[in-house]
Amino acid sequence: MLTANEIATRVESYHPTADLDLLRHAYDFSREAHDGQMRKSGDPYFCHPVSVAGIITDLRLDVASVCAALLHDVVEDTPVTTEQLAREFGDEVAFLVDGVTKLTKMNFTSRQDRQAESFRKMVVAMARDIRVLVVKLCDRLDNMRTLEFMSPDGQERISRETMDIYAPLANRLGFAQFKNEFQDLSFRYLHSDAHVEIAHAVQESASSRDHHIDKVCKLLKAKLATQGFAAQISGRVKHNYSIWRKMQDRQCSFEQVYDLTAFRVVVESVADCYAALGVIHSMWTPVPGRFKDYIALPKPNMYQSLHTTVFGPGHQRIEIQIRTHEMHEVAEMGIAAHWRYKAASGGIDPRDAAQFAWLRQLMESQNELSNPAEFLESVKVDLFQDEVYVFTPKGDVRAFPRGATPLDFAFAIHSEVGNHCAGARVNGTVVPLSYRLRNGDLVEVMTNPEQEPEKEWLDWVETARARSKIRHHMRLIQREKSKNLGRELLERAMTDGGMTLDRLEKSDDERDRVQERFGVDRLEELFVNIGYGKIKTNQVVDFLAPAEAENRRSQPPRSLRQGRIEAFVRRVTGRNSHGILLNGEDDVLVRFTKCCNPIPGDEIVGYMTRGRGITVHRRDCVKGFEADPERKVQVSWDPKAKINRPVTLTVVTANRPGILATVGQTFHGLGVNISEATCRAGDDGRASNTFTFLCSDLPRLKDVMRQLKKVEGVVDVSRV
């Protein structure tokens, strides 16, 4: 474990005027705050913040970042408050710590909501100061390095979160080393058998591969030297997860992955990059279609290089990256390689604004999406996609996830352009709005003031920004319809009761009484709630005319959610058979959706549907996200109920004799009775098989999936 003086020496080596006394104070303060706390490994907990601070110094960040690393867990895990940190270390350090701190002291209905809301909080903080995200990435990296001491379920959950969220975020900031290590460590726990197999294969081929790397480096260095280039040349084997992805994408074995190694040529200038490329192509034949110019068209994370693949010695394919020294530093260190802060605020310099457009879009998404799980899912979609580069009519370059359409392009320009998008031209030709953009496309959007977003647009867009804008607009339309319907229903009911809505709207006293009684700020909200079915018109009429209401009232209505959400969900008698509780009660009408088929153990959410009770979705179900958030209710599984729910698995296998029988025998050995099966062989040597069966809970399903993955010839097992 590093000492305070060792950390101070590191910082002083690249920041001679740093406030080292503040750093040492943070070290001592954190050590005292965490005194007596232990990690699952048995080490003192203080080892963790010290390790995170060490990673921060490797990135050569400022004293405030190092202090935040040392203190990042004190608010979460000790009695120390953010206000106390501000008094001890200043507002800057306190803000960074607060941005990293999880929301553990707030009540959430599920672990996923907590994760999503914590991430939302971090997005807001990192939009003000990107160092929040950098500290969080370093924190997660140290946690991943010690993940072996966690339980198997914890390892899987944290690894999945790291693969889905933190590896893409590291990539967005240009931290290639972080991204690769995140992916390899997550791969180790998510696909342990494949990880062991590939690690063993890489180790076995190390000798011949090292000889090949040495040979290619010498040939490249000699050839470039004769042309006057003082180039630095190195070779490396690709990391395990990258190799596994290639095997999955190409459906091949380890021995059939020919581009296991990559070579890097670092030269003095941009002109030298292109000149060196010419020398290499004259030396070895380039592979058609495998050249990429990321110097002229940098990646959104500031990465620049020339990429080419050639047939090298022995006619083996080799991948070569050519870049300058500055490009190499940015490729390895990302944003930390050219840290620019405004003098006072610590925000993103305007010169870097283009590279951080994705962060601005994240901010817009978190403002518009009230459902934290929906926001988190949209972030995963945007961050983890391959990208295509297209041009605006002015020649500006825009990057989009692969599969994006002109609608994504339109909403990226401006929300109003997207809302009124009536068509698009790509390369001068009119295309449908569902057209998938390709690299190099020139896109022009055509608008019409009368055009409004349509529901099918949700099936055509790929970016979270476009999807959230469309949903937001459609919700506004739905809200307006509900308001008009609610007003009409209330006006009719009041007329039948000998009252007028006009009098209610004009009487301040009556209006205030009604708004206070039904918990709304304006009558418009009351109309909306009536239109949605949350409040019945007779409740309002009875409240305004209690004498007449007493004669009409036959039985008081039962209500849901602290008496505010009206029970238009029909009650059923007797103990339920579906195993769902609503506010601890089980006598509610429930139906399960076929789009996600939730089973006990899944995180679930309910949506009230007029006349049909509560519709239950898995919390991560895309169809569930499309439901109106105002109809959302929190539901849970009844731990006392013993139920079996249908679940469907897709099992991708090699297309060879006997494999289906082996898979079927595995199901039989687990005591699983298959109720439906569909098998289809493809032209790629694989077969896609779907099996439907009854399952009692999520742990049981995970066990079935684990056993199926162990079957030789099974490529992938996924839940439908």
The biggest sheet, with number of strands, parallel, antiparallel or mixed sense and barrel status, is: 6 strands, mixed
CATH class of the largest domain: Mainly Alpha
Computed CA radius of gyration, to the nearest angstrom: 30 Å
Task: Quickly give the CATH architecture of the largest domain.
Answer: Orthogonal Bundle
Coarse morphology: globular
Helix proportion of residues, in percent? 40-55%
> Residue ranges: pLDDT <50 for 5 or more in a row?
103-109, 340-351, 547-576
Q: Kindly report the average pLDDT value.
A: 80
Q: CATH homologous superfamily name of the largest domain?
A: Hypothetical protein af1432
How does the helix and strand content classify structurally?
A: alpha+beta
In what range is the share of β-strand residues?
15-25%
- Tally the helices: 30
Protein architecture, described:
The chain is α+β, with helices and mostly antiparallel strands and 720 residues long. It folds into five domains: 4-191, Hypothetical protein af1432, CATH 1.10.3210.10; 199-336, Beta Polymerase, domain 2 (2-Layer Sandwich); 472-557, no CATH class; 558-642, no CATH class; 645-719, 2-Layer Sandwich (Alpha-Beta Plaits). Helix content is 48%, strand content 16%. The protein is built from 30 helices and 23 strands. The strands form seven sheets. Strands 1, 2, 3, 4, 5 and 6 form a six-stranded mixed β-sheet that branches. It has a four-stranded mixed β-sheet with strand order 15-17-16-18, with no helix packed on it. The chain has a four-stranded antiparallel β-sheet with strand order 21-22-20-23. Strand 5 and strand 6 form a beta hairpin. Helix 1 packs antiparallel against helix 2, helix 8 crosses helix 18 and helix 25 packs across helix 26. The chain is globular. The two termini are 46 Å apart.
